[in-house]
Amino acid sequence: MGLPKANRLRHRNQFKAVYQKGERCSGKYLVLLLLREVSPNDVSPPQVGISISLKVSKKAVVRNRIKRQIRAILQGLLPQFPQGLKLVVIVKPQAQVCQYEDFLRELRELLIKLEVLYGY
Question: What CATH number is associated with residue 10?
């Protein structure tokens, strides 16, 4: 099961805006780009996109497995995200050997560093 349609970045221009204007934070396996669209009457839901290139793996099976794992993690964290947030997760080539727990730990660390989550 994927993310709800309202919470997905789907168009090239949405990704492009986050790439150009967003804050960047990187870890061992992932890079996060974050764009906070702050307006007083903004009620748009947080949106997330995942970018994974052929450099990670030539096999679609491997790339799709990584995307499914990241989507599952983000689905659990989505209610904690503020309104108007746009997030792009870029997967690095080292992530091919990464397990679910590693993705979970790194995503939480990067989101805390970007001050989206405030930790436990």
Answer: 3.30.230.10
CA dist 64 and 60 (Å) reads 6
In a domain, 23, yes or no: yes
Q: Are strands 85-91 and 47-51 parallel, antiparallel or unpaired?
A: parallel
- pTM for this prediction: 0.90
| Higher per-residue pLDDT: 103 or 37 | 103
Is residue 93 within 8 A of residue 78, CB to CB? The reply is no
Q: 37-69: per-residue pLDDT in tens?
A: 776 666 789 999 999 999 999 999 999 999 999
How many structural domains compose the chain? 1
Classified as helix, coil or strand, 77 is: helix
DSSP 120: -
CA distance to 41, 66, 70, per residue, from 2 (Å): 28, 13, 10
> Does the residue 119 lie in any domain?
no
User: What residues make up the domain containing 104?
Assistant: 5-113
CA distance 75 to 2: 8
